[in-house]
Amino acid sequence: MKTTSWDEWLRGWLRRHPAGEPPQELQREYRRQVMDRIRAENAPRTVLPPIWVLRPRPAFAFAGALAAALTVLLVIRTPARVAHQVEQESQVLFEAGEGDLEQELQDQDRIVLAEAEQET
Amino acid sequence: MVDESEIIGAVLQGETERYGELVSQYQLAAWKLAYSFVGDWEEAKDLSQNGFVKAYRHLRHFRGSSKFSTWLYRIIANECKDFLRRRSRQPRTVPLGAEPDPEEPALLEVADPAGGPRESAHQRELAGKLSQAIERLSMKQRSAFTLHHLSGLGLEEVSRVMGCRAGTVKTHLFRANEKLRLSMEPFLDGETPR
User: Fold this and answer.
1) Residue A23: its chain B contacts at CB < 8 A?
2) A-chain residues within 8 Å CB-CB of B130?
3) Minimal Cβ distance to B27: which of A5, A20, A30
4) Angstrom distance (rounded) from CA A97 to CA A73
5) CA-to-CA distance for B87 and B79, rounded, in angstroms?
6) Burial class of B177 by CB neighbour count within 10 A (0 to 12, 13 to 18, 19+)
């Protein structure tokens, strides 16, 4: 087939068989879908800005600082207090033990002395 | 007739909803343009819609030296070319020399012929072979052929959409025609130009 006749044939064939129309059900939603995407582009962002941009209220800032200070105090003080309490209790127990032992020894001495006096 | 520049100005001033007027005006042409590249209405819808959204995003950069439609078609044609490149890189499992899957979307459709089922089958076969031949063209030849012959754009508009001179478009069209003629010759023996 020569180029000229081919060209004519091709143009004729494409004229007789034009690309159809998109399905009606897809056509109806086309504009809405595009506009939904465009509205989404313009919607305000939900990502939180950095903390320094938020400018917290003084009351909230004060409460936060106080809570942080108390937590720090508690964390530092607690081990020291526990150590002190353990030491005090062990001292009391030690002293109580010593007292009992002394009393026992004294009682023992009294019994031994009384027995010796009886023998003499 | 819609005053494009007035609508674009309004959209840029914040009246976003007015962009819908441009969508309504060009949606069918844009969709058909994408279809002429990819041969699938669903895929063409996604690609042309992407084109509308990208055009909106860059509306501020639209200088107005050409028509909005030309600029939009250029964006959509680029979307389609990217899509075709991505698709061509995907591995296919169809064995070499296999017949095309009749369910696979063909680039060209056959209008119901008056000649009966035999003529209909013949025309469908031609459409399939021609679609395959178009798909084998280089991207530039295919773009020129698609925009001019399938989307019906004039040479000047094709050149603006493709971003080259009208003379270059003519060269692409000539080479595309030659390749298609050689590809189709075995199937057209005896067929007379109608």
Assistant:
1) 41
2) 13
3) A30
4) 36
5) 12
6) middle
Please say if the pLDDT value at position A99 is more than 60: no
| Cβ contact B111–A17 (<8 Å) | yes
Pick the residue of B45, B75, B184 with the most A CBs within 10 A to test the interface with A by mutation: B45
Cβ within 8 Å, pair A22-B28:
yes
pLDDT tens per residue, range B66-103: 899 999 999 999 999 999 988 877 765 444 444 545 44
pTM for this one? 0.65
CB contacts of B181 in chain A (<8 Å) are: 1, 3, 6
Complete domains list, chain B, with CATH: 1-89 (1.10.1740.10), 114-194 (1.10.10.10)
Complete DSSP assignment for A44-65: PP-SPPPHHHH---HHHHHHHH
For the segment B20-72, what is each residue's pLDDT rounded down to a tens digit? 999 999 999 999 899 888 888 899 999 999 999 999 999 998 888 889 999 99
Give whole-number Cα distances, B144 to B69, B118, B133, B166, in Å. Answer: 17, 33, 14, 10
Inter-chain touch B19–A38, beta carbons under 8 Å: yes
